[in-house]
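Researcher: I'd like a structural prediction for the single chain below. Treat it as a standalone chain; there are no partners to consider.
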Amino acid sequence: MSDIAHDTDRPRTVSADPPRPRSGADDPPRPRRYAVFAVVGLALLMFSLDQTSVATALTTISTDLGADLAWTGWVITAAAVGQILALPLGGWLSNRFGGRWMFLGGVALFTLFSVLSAFSGSIGQLIACRFAQGLAGGVMMPAASGVVAYQFGRDRDRALALFTSVFPIGAIAGPLLGGVILTTWTWHGIFLVNLPAGILLLAAGVLLVPDPPRPGQARMDVRGIVLLVLTLLGLMLTVTRLGALGVAGPSLPVTLASAAVAVGAGAVFVRHTRRRPDSVIPLRLLTGRGLGSMNAANVLFGAVAIGFSATLPLYAQVRYGMAPLAAGVMLTGRAVGTIVASAPAVVLLRRTGHRPLMLAGIAMIVTGLVATAVPPPGVSAELWLLLGTTVLGLGTGLVIPASNNAGMHLVPDEVAAVSGLRIMFRQIGGIVAVSTITAVISASDRPGVAGGIAFVVLAVLLVGAGTLAARVPNHRGRW
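Model: Treating it as a single chain, here is the predicted structure.
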């Protein structure tokens, strides 16, 4: 979730931002860039806090609203689905109305639906509100990225890479905040904390955030967006219902029907992309010039990064019986490790290129995943999980800045389009991973062991992602 999508001046991207001047010596940084970065960073922090604090409350929400755990997992995945679906719309809206107003509008809507989530009385209502939150975030984050990219000019690669330091801060504070709220109050308060933060961000944004230059109005690929929506929703419903097979009710017919929708819509979407040059996802950015390998690697990396973070608190509770606060604290190691390693990684990018950092980071993440999956060797479960997540976090801090820049230098004139694809593919991988893991845990007679096996599978997938990423040409220096 640390990727930011933005848009070019052509209507063929998945992404979401007004364009900027071309990179180079004639694109100097703007004077207000640090103040703008601070406002945007706080908005991303609010988004990160929301995601990680909710992860600690899945079992509590499930019990309070009387929902099975597989459906409760949609509290997380619905927000991610909404974010993905908003990316192509965010670009068109930013080009039409301006990145500044899309950023402010996204913050306002995110805050509003946070409050509505807090007062949800059923799992269906909560999922709907979370989906709307994801839509707002999907509009807000790409627009914010475009604003920052314009402000930093030729240094935008490092500015955007530094966004990786914002999300881990939320990953530290979010589980702690969620655990404290659950211990002292109720899960409803997890969403209410966004109200004062949203109000402050709106006030600061009105005063400080400028509007980047706007291109001409772009033609939106409505058919492509509709097909993409059907594909993603069909896929997510299929994965969720797989965990309910064998339970009383029409699980099998619903699963088969949603799978048919996902496959059918996906096939038509691929054909549509091949035939339309200005498709919402251009074919040449899917498969050309090494980007195909990077896109596939991003799906797998998203499955690991997002899937692990969202389900670790649940795993800690069902396997080791930890309280929500203690389970949330386990993510602190990952966040601290990511922050510690990401800053040196940003500095090293122009010297070593992305490949050495990615391969070293992947090896550390695999080590951390396997460690969390196996029983503690003579130490407490809390200490063992904390050590494993810290190693995983150090690896994540190396991988994310490197992978953010891995494909963009291949098409330097279409950085926004590649950025949009990156966040979309990672979120897709993350959604599938979260839904699959929660479904497997809820359906298993030994949910803790099932969760550990799922983490080992994530480690295997990450090895595959590293193999694919190694095929992308390395690049040193500016791009």
